[in-house]
Amino acid sequence: MELIENTINLFSHFIFISLFHQLFYQLFDWSRIIKVNQDNGWRLRLFILLLSIALGYLVSNFVLDVLSFSRLIMWRN
Fold it and tell me: Are the C-beta atoms of 4 and 51 separated by less than 8 Å?
């Protein structure tokens, strides 16, 4: 049972991280915020990756906690 929960958690983290990564690339016009040139292009990509990991992990944990809490409430009754 623990293996299944850990697999679901890992899958959820990957889904939300990739979702945020795609959103940050497609939603924001980074050239308006940061002057993008050849020197700092890799820094911007690294920043987007780290920001995607941080927010994706945070949202994934929130969703998993809400699901866990709702499951706990349903089994208590």
Answer: no
8 Å CB contact between 55 and 20: yes
The structure's pTM equals: 0.84
d(CA 64, CA 23): 21
Question: Is the Cα torsion angle 1, 61, 46, 11 positive or negative in sign?
Answer: positive
CA distance 71 to 59: 18
∠ Cα 23 50 19 (to 5°): 25
Query: Tell me: the pLDDT tens digits for 10-42?
Result: 999 999 999 999 999 899 888 888 888 888 888
Encoding tokens for residue 72? 């706990």
- What is the identity of the amino acid at 12? S
17 half-sphere exposure, CB direction, 13 A CA radius: 13
